[in-house]
Write a structure and sequence with these properties.
Blueprint (H helix, E strand, L loop, with lengths): L2 E6 L8 E6 L7 E11 L4 H5 L15 E8 L11 E4 L10 H4 L23 E5 L4 E2 L6 H19 L8 E5 L5 H10 L3 E6 L5 H7 L3 E4 L5 H7 L3 E6 L4 H7 L3 E9 L11 H6 L3 E4 L5 H14 L5 E4 L4 H9 L6 E4 L2
Parallel strand pairs: 8-9, 8-11, 9-10, 11-12, 12-13, 14-15
Antiparallel strand pairs: 1-2, 3-4, 3-6, 3-15, 4-5, 5-7
Length: about 325
Protein backbone atom coordinates (compact mmCIF):
# COMPACT_ATOMS: atom_id res chain seq x y z
CA UNK A 1 0.00 0.00 0.00
CA UNK A 2 1.26 3.49 -0.86
CA UNK A 3 2.30 5.72 2.04
CA UNK A 4 2.09 9.47 2.42
CA UNK A 5 3.18 12.29 4.71
CA UNK A 6 0.48 14.11 6.67
CA UNK A 7 0.43 16.70 9.45
CA UNK A 8 -1.99 15.83 12.24
CA UNK A 9 -3.24 17.02 15.61
CA UNK A 10 -3.21 13.98 17.92
CA UNK A 11 -5.49 15.56 20.54
CA UNK A 12 -6.83 19.03 21.42
CA UNK A 13 -4.04 21.58 21.97
CA UNK A 14 -1.35 19.10 20.90
CA UNK A 15 1.44 20.26 18.62
CA UNK A 16 1.10 19.69 14.89
CA UNK A 17 3.19 16.64 13.98
CA UNK A 18 4.35 15.10 10.70
CA UNK A 19 3.34 11.45 10.45
CA UNK A 20 3.31 8.74 7.82
CA UNK A 21 -0.02 7.17 6.86
CA UNK A 22 -1.48 4.87 4.26
CA UNK A 23 -2.76 6.75 1.22
CA UNK A 24 -6.59 6.59 1.59
CA UNK A 25 -8.91 5.21 -1.09
CA UNK A 26 -12.14 7.03 -2.02
CA UNK A 27 -15.50 5.46 -1.24
CA UNK A 28 -18.77 6.02 -3.10
CA UNK A 29 -19.37 9.65 -4.06
CA UNK A 30 -15.79 10.58 -3.09
CA UNK A 31 -12.56 11.43 -4.90
CA UNK A 32 -8.94 11.35 -3.84
CA UNK A 33 -6.93 14.54 -4.34
CA UNK A 34 -3.16 14.72 -4.67
CA UNK A 35 -2.62 17.98 -2.80
CA UNK A 36 -0.63 20.73 -4.51
CA UNK A 37 -1.36 23.55 -2.05
CA UNK A 38 -3.31 24.11 1.17
CA UNK A 39 -3.93 27.48 2.76
CA UNK A 40 -3.36 27.95 6.49
CA UNK A 41 -6.44 29.68 7.86
CA UNK A 42 -7.15 31.16 11.30
CA UNK A 43 -10.13 28.78 11.48
CA UNK A 44 -7.65 25.88 11.60
CA UNK A 45 -7.39 26.74 15.28
CA UNK A 46 -10.78 25.05 15.74
CA UNK A 47 -9.03 21.76 14.96
CA UNK A 48 -5.81 22.48 16.84
CA UNK A 49 -7.61 23.72 19.97
CA UNK A 50 -10.50 21.25 19.86
CA UNK A 51 -12.88 24.20 19.76
CA UNK A 52 -15.42 22.70 17.35
CA UNK A 53 -17.97 20.17 18.65
CA UNK A 54 -17.60 16.58 17.55
CA UNK A 55 -14.02 16.58 16.20
CA UNK A 56 -12.47 13.12 16.28
CA UNK A 57 -8.71 12.80 16.75
CA UNK A 58 -6.15 12.41 15.35
CA UNK A 59 -7.22 14.92 12.71
CA UNK A 60 -5.44 16.51 9.75
CA UNK A 61 -6.38 20.24 9.45
CA UNK A 62 -6.80 22.24 6.25
CA UNK A 63 -9.80 23.57 4.31
CA UNK A 64 -8.19 25.66 1.53
CA UNK A 65 -7.10 22.78 -0.65
CA UNK A 66 -6.04 22.64 -4.30
CA UNK A 67 -4.84 19.52 -6.06
CA UNK A 68 -5.29 16.95 -8.81
CA UNK A 69 -7.90 14.19 -8.73
CA UNK A 70 -6.03 10.89 -8.93
CA UNK A 71 -8.75 8.39 -7.92
CA UNK A 72 -12.54 8.48 -8.30
CA UNK A 73 -15.02 6.43 -6.28
CA UNK A 74 -18.27 4.93 -7.53
CA UNK A 75 -21.27 7.16 -8.32
CA UNK A 76 -19.19 10.29 -8.91
CA UNK A 77 -20.58 12.22 -11.89
CA UNK A 78 -18.50 14.47 -14.15
CA UNK A 79 -15.25 14.60 -12.15
CA UNK A 80 -12.35 12.65 -13.69
CA UNK A 81 -8.74 11.77 -12.95
CA UNK A 82 -6.36 14.57 -13.84
CA UNK A 83 -8.77 17.43 -13.13
CA UNK A 84 -7.45 20.22 -10.88
CA UNK A 85 -9.95 20.97 -8.14
CA UNK A 86 -10.34 22.87 -4.92
CA UNK A 87 -12.11 22.22 -1.63
CA UNK A 88 -13.01 25.04 0.75
CA UNK A 89 -14.88 25.44 4.04
CA UNK A 90 -17.95 23.85 2.49
CA UNK A 91 -16.93 20.20 2.56
CA UNK A 92 -20.23 18.49 1.85
CA UNK A 93 -23.90 18.57 2.76
CA UNK A 94 -26.65 16.08 3.53
CA UNK A 95 -29.10 17.09 0.77
CA UNK A 96 -32.24 16.48 2.84
CA UNK A 97 -32.35 18.92 5.80
CA UNK A 98 -34.51 22.04 5.58
CA UNK A 99 -31.60 24.22 4.41
CA UNK A 100 -30.51 21.73 1.75
CA UNK A 101 -34.06 21.33 0.45
CA UNK A 102 -34.04 25.08 -0.16
CA UNK A 103 -30.64 24.92 -1.86
CA UNK A 104 -28.89 26.69 1.03
CA UNK A 105 -26.13 24.10 1.35
CA UNK A 106 -23.71 26.23 3.37
CA UNK A 107 -26.14 26.23 6.32
CA UNK A 108 -26.77 22.46 6.12
CA UNK A 109 -27.69 21.16 9.57
CA UNK A 110 -24.98 18.47 9.37
CA UNK A 111 -22.68 20.15 6.85
CA UNK A 112 -19.12 18.86 6.66
CA UNK A 113 -15.92 20.89 6.95
CA UNK A 114 -12.55 19.61 5.70
CA UNK A 115 -10.02 19.37 8.52
CA UNK A 116 -12.83 19.18 11.07
CA UNK A 117 -15.41 16.64 9.89
CA UNK A 118 -12.75 14.64 8.04
CA UNK A 119 -9.03 14.90 7.32
CA UNK A 120 -8.07 18.01 5.39
CA UNK A 121 -5.28 19.29 3.20
CA UNK A 122 -2.20 19.35 5.47
CA UNK A 123 -1.19 16.17 3.68
CA UNK A 124 0.05 14.77 0.37
CA UNK A 125 -3.38 13.25 -0.33
CA UNK A 126 -6.91 13.79 0.95
CA UNK A 127 -10.42 12.45 0.34
CA UNK A 128 -13.41 14.72 -0.37
CA UNK A 129 -17.06 14.20 -1.37
CA UNK A 130 -17.68 15.23 -4.96
CA UNK A 131 -20.25 17.90 -4.05
CA UNK A 132 -17.46 19.84 -2.29
CA UNK A 133 -15.31 20.15 -5.43
CA UNK A 134 -14.70 23.37 -7.34
CA UNK A 135 -12.94 23.54 -10.70
CA UNK A 136 -9.74 25.64 -10.68
CA UNK A 137 -9.18 27.98 -13.67
CA UNK A 138 -6.01 27.30 -15.62
CA UNK A 139 -4.89 30.92 -15.17
CA UNK A 140 -4.48 30.55 -11.38
CA UNK A 141 -1.46 28.96 -9.72
CA UNK A 142 -2.45 26.40 -7.09
CA UNK A 143 -0.73 28.39 -4.34
CA UNK A 144 -2.70 31.51 -5.30
CA UNK A 145 -5.99 29.65 -5.67
CA UNK A 146 -5.88 28.00 -2.23
CA UNK A 147 -6.58 31.09 -0.05
CA UNK A 148 -9.38 32.13 -2.41
CA UNK A 149 -11.31 29.01 -1.31
CA UNK A 150 -11.92 30.46 2.16
CA UNK A 151 -10.67 34.03 2.64
CA UNK A 152 -11.52 34.82 -0.97
CA UNK A 153 -14.96 33.27 -1.19
CA UNK A 154 -15.98 34.70 2.19
CA UNK A 155 -15.15 38.30 1.27
CA UNK A 156 -16.33 38.05 -2.35
CA UNK A 157 -19.62 36.41 -1.40
CA UNK A 158 -20.29 38.83 1.45
CA UNK A 159 -19.75 41.81 -0.84
CA UNK A 160 -21.88 40.59 -3.72
CA UNK A 161 -24.77 39.74 -1.38
CA UNK A 162 -24.42 42.87 0.77
CA UNK A 163 -26.98 44.97 -1.11
CA UNK A 164 -24.38 47.61 -2.08
CA UNK A 165 -24.37 48.96 -5.64
CA UNK A 166 -21.59 50.35 -7.79
CA UNK A 167 -20.61 53.79 -6.54
CA UNK A 168 -21.75 53.14 -2.96
CA UNK A 169 -19.34 53.73 -0.10
CA UNK A 170 -18.13 50.36 1.14
CA UNK A 171 -15.65 50.20 4.00
CA UNK A 172 -13.35 47.30 4.77
CA UNK A 173 -12.45 47.07 8.45
CA UNK A 174 -9.02 45.45 8.64
CA UNK A 175 -6.35 45.02 5.97
CA UNK A 176 -5.08 41.55 6.85
CA UNK A 177 -5.62 38.05 5.54
CA UNK A 178 -9.29 38.65 4.74
CA UNK A 179 -9.16 42.40 4.40
CA UNK A 180 -6.46 42.65 1.73
CA UNK A 181 -8.68 40.50 -0.51
CA UNK A 182 -11.86 42.34 0.45
CA UNK A 183 -10.30 45.67 -0.57
CA UNK A 184 -9.40 44.26 -3.99
CA UNK A 185 -12.83 42.73 -4.55
CA UNK A 186 -14.67 45.88 -3.42
CA UNK A 187 -12.64 48.13 -5.70
CA UNK A 188 -13.03 45.79 -8.69
CA UNK A 189 -16.80 45.62 -8.09
CA UNK A 190 -17.03 49.38 -8.51
CA UNK A 191 -17.61 50.43 -4.90
CA UNK A 192 -16.09 53.59 -3.45
CA UNK A 193 -13.74 51.57 -1.27
CA UNK A 194 -12.56 52.78 2.12
CA UNK A 195 -9.97 50.75 4.03
CA UNK A 196 -9.79 51.06 7.82
CA UNK A 197 -6.86 49.69 9.81
CA UNK A 198 -4.54 50.53 12.68
CA UNK A 199 -1.48 52.65 11.93
CA UNK A 200 -0.26 54.71 8.97
CA UNK A 201 1.93 51.91 7.57
CA UNK A 202 -0.97 50.07 5.90
CA UNK A 203 -2.17 53.15 4.03
CA UNK A 204 0.09 52.82 0.97
CA UNK A 205 -0.70 49.11 0.69
CA UNK A 206 -4.45 49.75 0.94
CA UNK A 207 -4.21 52.32 -1.85
CA UNK A 208 -2.14 49.91 -3.96
CA UNK A 209 -4.82 47.24 -3.47
CA UNK A 210 -7.45 49.64 -4.80
CA UNK A 211 -8.79 51.58 -1.81
CA UNK A 212 -9.89 55.10 -2.68
CA UNK A 213 -9.43 56.27 0.91
CA UNK A 214 -7.52 54.99 3.94
CA UNK A 215 -8.54 55.68 7.55
CA UNK A 216 -5.98 55.16 10.31
CA UNK A 217 -8.12 54.23 13.30
CA UNK A 218 -5.30 55.06 15.73
CA UNK A 219 -5.31 58.74 14.77
CA UNK A 220 -8.77 59.22 13.23
CA UNK A 221 -12.31 58.45 14.33
CA UNK A 222 -13.39 55.99 11.64
CA UNK A 223 -17.12 56.48 12.23
CA UNK A 224 -16.79 60.25 11.92
CA UNK A 225 -14.70 59.98 8.74
CA UNK A 226 -17.29 57.67 7.15
CA UNK A 227 -20.06 60.07 8.15
CA UNK A 228 -18.26 62.88 6.31
CA UNK A 229 -18.59 60.71 3.18
CA UNK A 230 -22.34 60.42 3.72
CA UNK A 231 -22.09 57.19 5.66
CA UNK A 232 -21.13 53.74 4.48
CA UNK A 233 -23.68 51.59 2.70
CA UNK A 234 -21.78 48.54 3.93
CA UNK A 235 -18.92 47.90 6.31
CA UNK A 236 -17.22 44.51 5.92
CA UNK A 237 -15.66 43.62 9.27
CA UNK A 238 -12.71 41.29 8.64
CA UNK A 239 -11.06 41.80 12.04
CA UNK A 240 -11.70 39.55 15.05
CA UNK A 241 -11.85 42.42 17.54
CA UNK A 242 -15.47 43.03 18.54
CA UNK A 243 -14.73 46.46 20.04
CA UNK A 244 -13.37 47.64 16.68
CA UNK A 245 -16.58 46.48 15.03
CA UNK A 246 -18.67 48.29 17.63
CA UNK A 247 -16.74 51.52 17.10
CA UNK A 248 -17.60 51.85 13.39
CA UNK A 249 -21.35 51.21 13.47
CA UNK A 250 -22.08 54.93 13.81
CA UNK A 251 -20.34 55.39 10.44
CA UNK A 252 -23.08 53.52 8.59
CA UNK A 253 -25.44 55.58 6.48
CA UNK A 254 -29.20 55.16 6.20
CA UNK A 255 -30.00 51.47 5.64
CA UNK A 256 -26.30 50.76 6.17
CA UNK A 257 -25.19 47.29 7.13
CA UNK A 258 -22.27 45.94 9.15
CA UNK A 259 -21.37 42.51 7.73
CA UNK A 260 -19.34 40.48 10.21
CA UNK A 261 -16.73 38.04 8.86
CA UNK A 262 -14.22 38.02 11.71
CA UNK A 263 -15.02 35.22 14.17
CA UNK A 264 -14.94 36.53 17.72
CA UNK A 265 -16.47 35.21 20.93
CA UNK A 266 -16.73 38.74 22.31
CA UNK A 267 -20.03 40.65 21.96
CA UNK A 268 -20.57 43.54 19.57
CA UNK A 269 -22.04 46.44 21.56
CA UNK A 270 -24.45 48.92 20.01
CA UNK A 271 -27.18 51.24 21.22
CA UNK A 272 -30.61 50.26 19.88
CA UNK A 273 -31.18 53.94 19.08
CA UNK A 274 -28.17 53.87 16.76
CA UNK A 275 -29.82 51.09 14.77
CA UNK A 276 -33.39 52.34 14.81
CA UNK A 277 -32.96 55.91 13.64
CA UNK A 278 -31.22 55.16 10.34
CA UNK A 279 -32.45 51.56 9.87
CA UNK A 280 -28.90 50.26 10.35
CA UNK A 281 -28.35 46.53 10.69
CA UNK A 282 -25.73 43.95 11.64
CA UNK A 283 -25.38 40.57 9.96
CA UNK A 284 -22.87 37.79 9.42
CA UNK A 285 -21.72 35.86 6.38
CA UNK A 286 -20.54 32.20 6.35
CA UNK A 287 -18.28 31.50 3.37
CA UNK A 288 -20.13 29.73 0.52
CA UNK A 289 -20.57 26.53 -1.48
CA UNK A 290 -18.36 24.94 -4.12
CA UNK A 291 -20.34 26.81 -6.81
CA UNK A 292 -19.60 30.07 -4.98
CA UNK A 293 -15.93 29.08 -4.93
CA UNK A 294 -15.97 28.75 -8.71
CA UNK A 295 -17.59 32.19 -9.02
CA UNK A 296 -14.90 33.64 -6.76
CA UNK A 297 -12.09 32.05 -8.75
CA UNK A 298 -13.51 33.16 -12.11
CA UNK A 299 -13.97 36.74 -10.89
CA UNK A 300 -10.44 36.75 -9.47
CA UNK A 301 -9.07 35.80 -12.88
CA UNK A 302 -11.27 38.32 -14.68
CA UNK A 303 -10.50 41.20 -12.30
CA UNK A 304 -6.86 40.29 -11.57
CA UNK A 305 -7.36 39.73 -7.84
CA UNK A 306 -4.53 37.87 -6.11
CA UNK A 307 -3.78 36.97 -2.50
CA UNK A 308 -0.44 37.98 -1.02
CA UNK A 309 1.06 34.71 0.21
CA UNK A 310 3.98 33.11 2.01
CA UNK A 311 4.68 29.49 1.07
CA UNK A 312 5.99 26.78 3.42
CA UNK A 313 6.77 23.10 2.71
CA UNK A 314 4.63 20.44 4.39
CA UNK A 315 7.45 19.54 6.78
CA UNK A 316 7.26 23.07 8.23
CA UNK A 317 3.46 23.09 8.66
CA UNK A 318 3.71 23.66 12.42
CA UNK A 319 5.91 26.71 11.80
CA UNK A 320 3.50 27.93 9.10
CA UNK A 321 0.56 27.62 11.49
CA UNK A 322 2.34 29.52 14.28
CA UNK A 323 3.41 32.22 11.81
CA UNK A 324 -0.23 32.68 10.79
CA UNK A 325 -1.47 32.72 14.41
CA UNK A 326 1.18 35.30 15.38
CA UNK A 327 -0.42 37.84 13.05
CA UNK A 328 2.92 38.45 11.33
CA UNK A 329 2.00 36.71 8.05
CA UNK A 330 1.72 38.96 4.99
CA UNK A 331 -1.00 38.04 4.34
CA UNK A 332 -1.94 34.40 3.76
CA UNK A 333 0.17 31.35 4.51
CA UNK A 334 0.14 28.38 2.12
CA UNK A 335 1.57 24.87 2.56
CA UNK A 336 2.84 23.30 -0.67
CA UNK A 337 3.52 19.56 -0.32
Amino acid sequence: MKRMKAVQVAKPNAALEVVERDVPDPKEREVRIKVQACGVCHSDMFTVAGAFPGIQYPRVPGHEVVGIIDAVGAQVPDWKNGMRVGVGWHGGHCGHCTSCRRGDFITCKVGQIPGISYDGGYAEYMIAPFEALAAIPDELKSEDAAPLLCAGITTFNALRHSGAHSGDVVAILGVGGLGHLAVQFAAKMGFKTVAIARGPDKGPLAKKLGAHLYIDSTSQNAAEELTKLGGARVIIATVTDASSMSSVIAGLGIDGKLVVLGASAEPIEVSPLLLIGARRSISGWPSGTSADSEDTLKFSVHADVHPMIEVFPLARAAEAYQHMMSGKARFRVVIAP
